[in-house]
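User: two proteins, same treatment. go.

Assistant:
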Amino acid sequence: MQKAAAYLQGTRKRTLKFISAVGILFLLCLLPINHAWAKTYHVLIISSGSSAVYKKAIDTIQSTVTSSTHLSKENTDVEFNVLFLKNTSTTEQLQRKIEGKDLLLTIGQRAMISATKINNSPPTIVTLIPKQSYIKYRTALRRINKKTAAIFIDNPPVRQILLAKILLGGVQRLGVLTGENSPYKKNKIKSDIQKQGIKSHIETVNEKDNLIRKLSSVLSDSDAFLALPDANIFNRSTAKNILLTTYRHRTPVIAYSASYVKAGALAAVYSTPQQIAKQAANTLIKIFSSKSEFPQEDAHPKYFEISINKNVAKSLGIPIFSESEIKSELLKNLGKKK
């Protein structure tokens, strides 16, 4: 009897252990199937400064990525570290910050330049920079990591050309000045203008040329002038004289920034820092998705705004619709182009 009792007691213990094991296994089965494959990516954002503009852009990137339903469905998390550059920032500090990161994202030109000093950098996306600046530092960036892509702040010239066509229905010839190191090549601009059924007068300006003299020559043979983002031609020291010259010739200017419109240009196509940030965030979401890869090409802004100087339009006798209507028409024309 004692042996039988001991046997039954041992059997009960083994049974209880078996039931407990089965119970634990059952509870594990109730967990999400992809729990074991959860993935966390680490991103370092280097900002050129700590102004409200930069902070707002960073907030847009972080909130857009962390609230992505696409990433949450794939059980993917993204953790951000932010470094605001200061005058005292050192290469050693940058190097420490980059350790263990899966991707580097820079905001602004100063941050992009700082990235060229980092060794063993992860894949890098530079944002909120002119195309001209990126071309200057592209080789240095790709020396530290071949996976480097950019989101420019300047819109492609074709949008300015289409804006000129919409605002100035009877435009016959567009004038353009390009620098020797312009990111937008003369032949490509000429081709884009011709595709819209418009003629062009394009002059290249070098260091020895008299800028205003060349501008005057172009304006005398043009119905409108395209101011393209080329820092060698359009900068703080030249902007005022350029706009005064176009005004004397009564030639409307289609520019690339809202500040030029405030200063006297007729209109501009431009993108806000927040729009660039939204595009950067969507790029990160695609990269960290299981079926996507790092961008193969650099990108112009996807989102943009239109700004019109109504006082200039009135003085030139140009009828103007609302900016929202002009933007809608421009989007329609870009759709036809595709």
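Protein 2:
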Amino acid sequence: GDGAAFARGLSRLLRRLALTRFPRGGVAGLTGEDWLAFLDEHGGQGRFREGPGRALLEAPYRPAPEFPAEDLLALVGEWVRLNGGPRR
């Protein structure tokens, strides 16, 4: 499979959800490590910066033979469940 395309798709999904759930000014300009830090602060618990979520940054730029597709999908799914419910 194409890990880079998979990672880009998941990143777009997360960004769309974040833009609907959090103040736009705090999300729209985030890139790279800052984006991963934001995801960690809102439920990733370090697993975007220090775990499978790193693939969101790294996969598009380098071939990743050990692309953590299942772990990344599980992490993204958990984040979406945490942040995708009705607004509190």
